[in-house]
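Intended use. Records like the one below are meant for learning the mapping from a protein sequence to its folded structure. Do not use them to infer anything beyond what is encoded.
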Amino acid sequence: MVASENDSNHMNQAVRMEDSPDPPFEATYKRLFDDVTAAPEVSAVAECELPMIDLNELNLGEFSRRACMKKIALASKEWGFFQVINHGICREVLEKMREEQVKLFAKPFSDKAANKDSNFSAGSYRWGTPLATCLRQLSWSEAFHVSLSDVLGSRDVHNNLSSIMEQYATMVSELSQKLVDILASELGQKSEFFKEKCVASTCYLRLNRYPACPIFPEMFGIMPHTDSDFITVLHQDQIGGLQLVKDGSWFAVKPNPQALVINIGDLFQAWSNNVYKSVEHRVVANPLHERFSTAYFFCPSYDTVIESGVYRSFSFGEYRKQVQEDVKIFGHKIGLTRFLLQTH
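Structure written out for the chain above:
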């Protein structure tokens, strides 16, 4: 009788694991958790409020428009991050996007890993850090990293997720183009480059979920990194966890329910000759609550060449390949310093 009950318990546990939406972090990375000496050291950090930009000021006459543009450029120079309100993406779209995202991640892990019931390209679903050799390199998160070519023009009216992703991406693409136009203008540059090179099908939407991590108090949801695009537009929930470097110290970003977070990527730092800053940032997992965010990466085609007076010329495809190789070898991204000209 006891053996039968034990067998039943093991079967029930196996069923629960199979149906669980959470990736098997503990089982997969058990040897990393055995060596806590290589764990992340996330000391208490002060909270900051990012520079706030009201984009409605762009519509209030020439004086207000110029002042708003300068605030955007200044935040990009001094912070590499800012937040925007009155951004043109209605609350209904943001709420629907989040609702469908939560449904997607609530599916069993096995279904997500098998790309079941998804129209996304193979390899879109990602979790953890496959090449991690210590806890500092482990990201306690899962994501769907989706090329917009997978959702644009899908015409699948019965797929609520694809439909809202396309609607959301179209709106965020327009916002991104507006912001890069302003940032280019503030450098005295024309923005045709972005209109030609950064079309919707070359951009990406990343749906993130950071499960609660009660077993370790200082786990990275995503390890420290910079983004490899021109700009990133982030919609996050109210759990918090996003942190960035400012003046050599880490700060926690205070969530704002009305705002979208914008940050400069490596390509814009290179294109602007280091005027705009691509800043290191990370996410720290919450011990009690899961966290959701949606990131839109404004990217060019892989053959787009970035010309710079600080870095040697490189294509976006070459840059991506170098980043991937460095991650395989060193466990982390090296980034733009790989492409510095000798004189710098």
